[in-house]
Amino acid sequence: MIGLGIILAIIIFSFIVFFHELGHFSLAKKNGIDVEEFAIGMGPNLFSKEYKGTRYCIKLFPIGGLCMMGEDEEATDSPSNFNNKSVWARIAVIAAGPVFNFILAFVFAVILVAMVGYDKPVITSVEEGYPAYEAGIEEGDTIVEMNGKKISIFREITAYNQFHQGVDTEVVYLHDGEERSAVLTPKMDEERNYYRFGIGGGGYTKANVLTALKYGVFEVKFWICTTLDSLKSLVTGKIGVDQLSGPVGIVSVVDDTYQQSKSYGVFMVIVQLLSIAVLLSANLGVMNLLPLPALDGGRLVFLAIEAVRRKRIPPEKEGYVHLVGITLLMALMVFVMFNDIKRIFF
Q1: Could you report the per-residue pLDDT of 3-22, keeping only the tens digit for each?
Q2: Which of 5, 18, 128, 301 is geometrically suited to a Cys-Cys bond with 255, CB 3.0 to 4.6 A?
Q3: Which of 21, 156, 219, 318 is catalytic?
Q4: d(CA 194, CA 5)
């Protein structure tokens, strides 16, 4: 029997992908582009109804959705064909998917901050024998910058150290309202096998409407930067491909989170699921903007080239590139799914 955690995972993941496709759909309709099919889920249709030239469907497998626009090269005479619209209209339609994901992440983040507050980058503890203590940093100081990167929430400090292990770091901080700076060389904690600055933070500050909006932006920024840093680590080999997770892994994580938090009550379950939803939505927005064939980012590259040269790249050539991209992407998805299953069951 499928547990409630798995059901919640499927609902969250499907809604985020659905909202992505809703972005494409909304801008397509706004620009007078034919949308042949708009669907929730994948696979065979369970229900479908045509309305004003668009078939709306609910499909068998409740994972994601699709927005199929009129891009048939044989229908080039139609003014509502995607390919007959201006390059800027097409850019808007393609970019709308990732943009909607960032908007959704922001909405979730504002709700999350309003519920639990925000973690200001204020130091609550400094350990003797570590670089922060030696540099004179004290409890109550606020970190505002690390190697030129602006710090808005305490988790950014932890994430920066995680992705820059052992790297000398110039820290700008506020001490009694006075801005100071120090260069910290992280020290290896032999017990944890991890380089540390020797500072700690904790606790959340209650948010009002304005701070919830402000820190909602910081929350989305944090997850976007974390996703980009993770991709950089993947490219440089610091993270292996075998550590990637796909839909199966995501469902497993959400289910585990639900199982661990349900004993603390409904409030904690909602908080944990909202946090995951912010991460997933921001992550999907970033991943789709990568300039790779078959992704929205890859299509935007071709459209940007067209905007500069004022001439479209031959559709058949662009199609070949995206076909190769889809093939490689599907191969990667199979590999990731296999790894997810192996981690869960073996």
Answers
A1: 788 888 888 988 998 899 99
A2: 5
A3: 21
A4: 33
